[in-house]
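WARN retry 2 of 3 for item q-0093 after timeout on previous attempt; input resubmitted unchanged.
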Amino acid sequence: MRMKVNVQTPNFAAKTNLLEFVEKRLSKLEQFYDRIIFADVFLKVQKTSEKQNKSVEILLSIPGGDLIVKKEGKTFEEGTDECVQSLERQLKKRKQKERAFF
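OK item q-0093 returned
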C-alpha cells in the first residue's frame, strides 16, 4: 500500500517538479518502515532577510504516534532532504523498538 502524501503550500503555488521531488523523497521512507499511513508536508516561505528562508515541515502518521520534523534551508529541496534524513533515523529507531517487543 502506498502512503498518501499531502503537500500544502500556503502563500505560493508549488511547481509540479517540486511536488514530485517531495513525493519521491518521502516514498523512500517506506523502505525503512512499511506502515506509514500518510505524510502531511507544509512548505512555507519565511518572511526574513535570511537566505535560509524556506521552511519544510513534515508530519508522518504511523501507528503508535506521529513523527514531526521541521527544517529550514535555502531551498525546499534542501529542507526536504534534511527532513527525510531525520525521519529515516526516527523510523529505524521505531522499528528497532518494535522488534524488541515481539
